Amino acid sequence: MIEMHAHILPGFDHGPNTMNESLEMARQAAAAGVSIIYATPRYRYPSYDFDAVFVTEAVKFLNFQLLKARIPVRVRSGQEITLYDGMETDLERKRILPLEHTNYVLVNMNGTHSFLYVRQMLKKLYNHGFIPILSSPERLRMFQKRHGGLEKLVNEGAAVQISAGALLGRDGRSDRRWAKYFIKKRLVHFVASNACSAYDQPFCLDQAYWQFVRMQRLGEWERMQKNTHLLLNGGRITPPAKQSLI
User: Fold this and answer.
1) Rounded to two decimals, what is the model's pTM?
2) Most distant CA pair in the chain: distance in Å?
3) Residue 39 burial class via C-beta count within 10 angstroms: exposed 0-12, middle 13-18, buried 19 and up
4) Contact 42/3 with Cβ under 8 angstroms?
5) Which CATH entry fits the domain spanning 2-232: 3.90.226.10, 3.30.1330.30, 3.20.20.140, 3.10.450.50?
6) Hey, how many other C-beta atoms are within 10 angstroms of the C-beta on 127?
7) Quick one: pLDDT band at residue 45, thresholds 50, 70, 90?
């Protein structure tokens, strides 16, 4: 399996504090059947402002440590970027990172963003040749209150990633209900662990698989796994069926 959203780099954002914990996270991922991890530390000025050079060098060093430790996992670079004015220009200048070898950008939204602002920012990304992947919309009131909001963004070209932890109920009943609802509506392109610790928030894609089985949505799981492999090879992901706005 491929994890396309994880905070595994030591010393970045809310990920592990030490290399030893990063390696332990990788061991756990390997034991769960994960072979590729996209390291996606958050970029949000001024709290988390490590730019592309710092991330790519940290990924190289982590891969070196993984080889030394004989852990059968490899890491690719990326960032989870909180929307801000001018991010499309910073992406073009390679100051911040899309997912490695792709034009897909993992986008973080927060409670201060309005739906109109998100939509305007996504349009700028499209116009500059980038495809946004919306991270964990199940936790945001803008999509819970605005009926049909996420459908509109998907129909306009955005991709969606839900948290495996939310689907498993680790983030509360509301997040779980909305994660399952978005899957039912065929609005989800990816599921990822959003792992940031070997202990408190570990990798859990293997457990999420069984949740898809219980939901009788195995076809959706298989499509999402296919999408991660398409990402890895620089391909265009498989979209869900077009939605009629509700």
Assistant:
1) 0.93
2) 52
3) buried
4) no
5) 3.20.20.140
6) 9
7) low
